[in-house]
Specification:
The protein has helices at 2-17, 19-39, 46-72. The protein has 74 residues and is mainly α. Helix 2 packs antiparallel against helix 3 (46-72). 5% of the residues are buried.
Length: 74
């Protein structure tokens, strides 16, 4: 609980002070939105399945980068 509150403070500070952090969050959000759009499709073509997997990997990379920034600013 205390760690979560501390992380929230770090995140708020990063949002206010780091354009890189804001950019990573925005890119992560956009990737998530596209994945959600794809998930609404009942039957995916091979190309769309590949796109979804690629998007998931890119989203995970962004998440890792965000987490690393939080760790280094804690």
């Amino acid at each position: 609980m205390i760690e979560e509150e501390f992380n929230e403070k770090v995140i708020k500070k990063l949002r206010a002070e780091s354009s890189e952090f804001k950019k990573l969050e925005e890119e992560h959000r956009k990737l998530d939105e596209r994945i959600e759009e794809i998930d609404k499709i009942k039957f995916l073509s091979t190309e769309v399945e590949l796109e979804r997997k690629t998007l998931q990997k890119a989203k995970l990379v962004k998440k890792d980068q965000i987490a690393e920034m939080i760790r280094t600013h804690s």
